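Hi F.,

I've been meaning to write this up properly since the lab meeting, where we talked about keeping a consistent format for the predictions we share between groups. The idea is simple: the sequence comes first, exactly as it goes in, then the structure tokens exactly as they come out, then a line or two of notes. No screenshots and no reformatting. I'm using this chain as the first example so we have something concrete to point to.
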Amino acid sequence: MSQARPTVGGFSADGRLFTVDMRGELHSWMPGTREARLLASNLGIGTSLAFVPGTPWVAIGTQEGVSRLRSSVTGQARDLHHHEGLVNSLDVTSDGRYLAAASADRTAILWDLATGEPRVLRGPQRLASADENGGVWLWAPSSGKGQRLGAHGAKVWRLAFSPDGGHLASAGEDKVVRLWNVSTGESRTLTGHAIGSFAARCARGFARRSPAGAGSVPRRRDGGTKPPHCATRRA
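Output, unedited:
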């Protein structure tokens, strides 16, 4: 059977490429080869992918709204059901304890991977989200309170914390990358042709996904903005 078109993929810490294709099959690819190993099937259409640090677990967000965990070693499976819309984005805390999932149903759920229960984090964790109107938000999961750092001139499609957690980068459809100081809320714009091209590629790559929402760290009461991406970081 011919290889179906991948819908999402990512590189693990050991350099392997993992992809989920249109048939809902999870494959791993060894660097420098064209041979794929089938790890799981019947996952549904993959919309996001993340890895649990220090473990063989791969997290897959699906169009059906289910976040699926699969072990790349044993094939063990766990499914996390909560969302009513596709899962746009997944991220795992650096200690591997929690999975953040942002969905088109306007919620962002924080899963305790030890228990499989959605919960509010207790401890020095941060959650960042971005909405379809360009707003960038920083949340304190322990209290559920959010702070709007600022905005792009168009939708934001990608977020990432710096390794020390002191800065947050956001890439938007306006071809701009902003670097935010999470302590002060101040930002600076990274400019140049290469930066603009990178931001544009982020926008094109995520344009097929409808934006998701800021939820469990709470839902917006005005029913307005909806984050398409989330990122987590231990403070």
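Notes:
The CA atoms of residues 35 and 206 lie 27 Å apart.
The radius of gyration is 17 Å.

If this format works for you, I'll send the rest the same way.

G.
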